[in-house]
Amino acid sequence: QVQLVESGGGLVQAGESLRLSCEASGNILNINIMGWYRQAPGKQRELVATIAGGGGTNYADSVKGRFSISRDNAKNTVYLQMNSLKPEDTAVYYCNADRVIYYTGSRSVGYDYWGQGTQVTVSS
C-alpha cells in the first residue's frame, strides 16, 4: 500500500529555518498533487502548500514569501523549506498525496494519503 513518511521537524527559535521531507512509497507510478498541511493545538488542520506534478504551486497567505514547496518526482518526495519561522508556525505538519497511481499486479488509483505528522516548534 501507499505510505508517506515525513522527516525534518524539530525545535527552532523564531527567525530560523527548517526543511521538511516526505517520501511516498508503495510501487508508485505517479502522484498528482503533493502537499503539506498543519494542525496547531486546538485548531483545525489547514493547508500550508501544495504542488502539482507539473510544478504548479499554491500557498497559504500566512506562509507566502517564507515557505517554499518543491518535489522530486523520481524519488516521490516532496519538500517544504521553511524560512523566517514564527511562533505561530508551531504545529504538527502532515504530508499529503492525492490521486496516486500505483502498481499491485495492475494499475490502481488511490486518493488522499496522509503521513504520520512531524512536530515543528518555534520558540520566541
Describe this structure in words.
With 124 residues, this protein is mainly beta. Helix content is 0%, strand content 61%. The chain is built from no helices and 12 strands. The chain has strands spanning 3-7, 10-13, 18-25, 28-39, 46-52, 57-59, 67-72, 77-82, 91-103, 107-110, 113-114, 118-123. The strands form 2 sheets. Strands 2, 4, 5, 6, 9, 10, 11 and 12 form an 8-stranded mixed β-sheet that branches. A hairpin with a 4-residue loop joins strand 7 (67-72) and strand 8. The protein is elongated, with a radius of gyration of 14 Å. The N and C termini lie far apart (40 Å). 29% of the residues are buried. The model has no long low-confidence stretch (mean pLDDT 97).
- Order of helical and strand elements: EEEEEEEEEEEE
* Total beta strands: 12
- Proportion of residues in extended strands: over 45%
Q: Supply Rg.
A: 14 Å
Write the layout of secondary structure elements.
Elements: E1 3-7, E2 10-13, E3 18-25, E4 28-39, E5 46-52, E6 57-59, E7 67-72, E8 77-82, E9 91-103, E10 107-110, E11 113-114, E12 118-123
Parallel strand pairs: 2-12
Antiparallel strand pairs: 1-3, 3-8, 4-5, 4-9, 5-6, 7-8, 9-10, 9-11, 9-12
Brief rundown of the structure:
The protein is mainly beta and 124 residues long. Helices cover 0% and strands 61% of the residues.
For this entry, give a set of tags:
single chain, 124 residues, mainly beta, 4-stranded antiparallel beta sheet, 12 strands
